[in-house]
Specification:
This protein has ten helices and 34 strands. With 640 residues, it is of the alpha+beta class. It has a seven-stranded parallel β-sheet, covered by helices on one side. It has a four-stranded antiparallel β-sheet with strand order 3-2-5-6, with no helix packed on it. It has a four-stranded antiparallel β-sheet with strand order 22-21-24-25, with no helix packed on it. Helix 4 links the parallel strand 13 and strand 14. Helix 1 runs parallel beside helix 2 and helix 9 runs parallel beside helix 10. The N and C termini lie far apart (60 Å). The model has no long low-confidence stretch (mean pLDDT 96).
Amino acid sequence: VEAEVVNHSASPVKAKVKGTIENIRFDQTVKLAPYEKKTISFEPARYSVLNIKNPRLWWPFQYGDPNLYTLDMQAVAEGMESDHRKVTFGIREVVDYLTPEGYRGYMVNGKKIQIRGGGWADDLFLRESEKNLEAQVQYVKLMNMNTIRLEGFWGSSQKLYDLCDKYGILLMTGWSCQWEWKEYLGGKECDDFGGVKSPEDMKRVAGMFHDQVVMFRNHPSIYVWVLGSDKLPRPELEKTYYSELKTIDPTRPGLGACSNRKSENTGPSGVKMEGPYDYVTPNYWYLDTTHGGAYGFNTETGPGPQVPPIESLKKMIPADKHWPINDVWNYHCGRNEFNTLNRYINAMNNRYGRATSLDDFVKKAQLENYEAIRPMFEAFAVNKAKATGVVQWMLNAAWPKLYWQLYDYYLTPNGAFFGTQAGCKTLNIIYNYGDNNIYVSNDLYKPIKGATAEIRVFDLNSREVLTQKVPFEIGENEAKKVFDMPAFKDITPVYFLSLRILQGDGSELSRNFYWLSTKPDVLDEAKSEWFVTPNSSFADYTALSKLAPAKIETAAAFNPSGNMQELRVNLKNSSNTLAFFIELKVKGKKSGQRVLPIQWQDNYISLLPGEERIITARFNTDDLQGDEPVFEMDGWNVKP
């Protein structure tokens, strides 16, 4: 335990500094000259009470409880309390390692943890609402992600850090990349080490780094200090950073850059930033071995645009510009290569058919969002032996936009939100778009025994063409193939794959659902660019428009509990037709607006013929703004 004490008076002071951690007490007497500042430490070698046996460890939420302690520090002078400070902290160990291939990974409390995260954007004008922050951190947890990546200055507020400590979300804190971009260097291209060059600038930046680390170092959620983003700091500046960390925070590693760089001080970064940033088909993540595919640690990547649901589009785009897509839509895209939705729309036109209206476009967009993001996380899970981490670019939105978001500015989850939720399950059964076989991924540090993989295939007419039950066992933190999918002859152009993991008693441990095409996606690797790998041809899902109607019976009930409400909805497919991609909503009865934020257990779901599911959702009663909640349902082949 370390504390800085300052004498603000013109006289010498003798004071006692006291510390308490639950039933642990320790103190030290200190003498200070006038205006003197001194750092004092309580080392376990001298203060044996600080050797804590069997501590309650802080864990990322999937692996254990994010246990926290409180340190209460008090300075007493002349028999009276002079100052008082409380600090929350966690006890845990973080280390990095390199795989045999040279890829960097991270361990928490001695356990390898594959990083699965999203890139954070602070709100417009750096506005900060604790309620909004809490909703976003809860969203991260709901999606089964374990990490938020911060790029840029780390802010002046502890709120986001406190919430990540509380909910067990890891933080990858990164120093600004903007010093490296030519727009910030008078239009000049910078060298391999960014724009901070002069001794004065390096001294200033190093001082800022020191202060930020001291400010946030007590947060157990931070697992790494990233010293540069797209590029490395200059060698002499990097030395200064590491020297600072050795003194002020030796408890966690640093990382020179988020891109694939080699430092003369620390060697290869062991991570990559090879894209893509625009739409790629699901097989990319399994087949690519030279860019952003599922190997190593990809610190920022993703399948590009993520168009929000229709209610958000109508808020951000004037009514007379809703359709067709136009320059107002483009204004809410990115810049340079990302200033339109053209690649995303081209894939939609080829794979799902050209949209005929705003409603049709948004329906297909959510399907495309879900299908594009899920295999990114699943491919890294399947390849976890050599794939140490992946960070979706991006997690959230600083303003209403169409690119790079799992939920939008209004906190509306889009299809990619629930594709991420499905792809990041700690125990998952997965269709591999690379070799077309079935895998199980177990992130947990306990083996799974006596389980069964249930594989069922249905054609477009909802006729079951394959049913297979495969017993399997899987070790801790392991992924393995459990079933070789057969080649189907004379099956419909689009067919469906239902995957379940069942326990010995038949109860369900995990599930997944896919729509597949007999026509494969074919990548055009020769035309790859830094931000995208295009296709020479696409899968064909246009036959989905011929899916027969399904009938869904619903029973919904809202149950208030304190300031929260829980929706419990029973969905039953009473028809002989598969009900495809059902979207669930809660709205205000009078306003017609979605109730947000909201925590859905699952969404954009499909129901097999005769299948029945109970889905829950939670939201804050205050977010109804005095309105009455109503449940709505819509789907690909389901009557709203």
